Amino acid sequence: MKLYIAPGACSFASHVVVQELDLPVEVVTVSLTDPQGLHKQVSPFGRVPALQLDDGTVIAENTVILPFLADLVPGTSLFAPAGSVERAQIQSWLGYLSSEVHTGSFRPINRPGRYHADAAQHDQVRASGIALLRAALAPIAAHLQTRTWLVGERFTIADAYLGVFLGWLARAPGKPFKDETLDAYYLRYQQRPAVKVAADAEVA
Amino acid sequence: MKLYIAPGACSFASHVVVQELDLPVEVVTVSLTDPQGLHKQVSPFGRVPALQLDDGTVIAENTVILPFLADLVPGTSLFAPAGSVERAQIQSWLGYLSSEVHTGSFRPINRPGRYHADAAQHDQVRASGIALLRAALAPIAAHLQTRTWLVGERFTIADAYLGVFLGWLARAPGKPFKDETLDAYYLRYQQRPAVKVAADAEVA
User: Fold this and answer.
1) Smallest Cα–Cα separation from B135: which of B106, B155, B113, B110?
2) For residue B175, what pLDDT band results from cuts at 50, 70 and 90?
3) Domains, chain B
4) ipTM above 0.85, yes or no
5) For residue range A144-175, what is the model confidence (pLDDT) as tens digits?
6) Mutate to test the interface with A, among B45, B54, B61, B165 (most CBs of A within 10 A)
7) Cys-Cys link to A93, which of A138, A158, A173, B162 (CB 3.0-4.6 A)?
């Protein structure tokens, strides 16, 4: 199998899970700015992450790739059995992070041009995006106030995904959202050996 | 179990699946504009659809509720077995529809105020949203040119979800995207008995 990623992109979550589970997956780095990038030929949506199976089938979207990778190791603590409530809770967080945090909030911050054709308005679109991000992160911070990880007091694929956005937040200019609970959580995330290995590989 | 929906909202997809599978689920209609709406007390994110299990647990997000509902009927043609490539393909479409079509495109069209504080700019945000919608629907239309349904030539939960957005498109002012393939697909969708039953129940 091949996992297509771009350095610093949301594909980092899938990269972390490959490391956490020590999966036999080749991680292929592509450039998102290259219009002929390998991922465009591979992914049905021209995006990362994309997971190419041995038979050539391509799976897209973190909300799908993360469960798929975890299911390669039945009984892993990173996920939960099919049909269990915990599995649905983990999937709920994946869905929320994908739609509300990534597409809903970071996209207007990172790509304001998609929401207004006039560049003079982009600062205002970004400001609106930051307000959306605060609103999207507030329930996560509240949830984590009494918890170490998102679901079941153990690191799961939902945490692998949340860490991506807290990394983006930490690197965002002007610290748009400051929260002690999230800061402590992100420190725990960064200290995981698998996260360190994936981060070092993407920088190298 | 109780499924919380709002008339015309994206919860329609879950409503359709309840009807397709004739599930023992009570469909509870709430108003999204009522701040004390029942769903706000039930859903962790104050949104529909929300599925409340018999033990009180609440599951949010169509990308999670649709698979959960389908898995109540093992072997249903609406989904595919755990671990299969078809299941991952169906989940990929759910993820794409949620993030790119709903949050990514319809949200700036329907809620431009979230992306720009100045109401004088909202028409421009909407125009950008329509361009995003065209780009998001193009690969779907291309995919459907040689297919009856999204995956495996049968109606699945991915189709239950896509139909919601084609309904929104059909009712959008000015017909922002006209495509014969999608029109024919939406006609097939509307002709399904379960879709008719769900649609009639939401209007009543």
Assistant:
1) B106
2) confident
3) 2-74+196-203 (3.40.30.10), 85-192 (1.20.1050.10)
4) no
5) 999 999 999 999 999 999 999 999 999 887 77
6) B61
7) A158
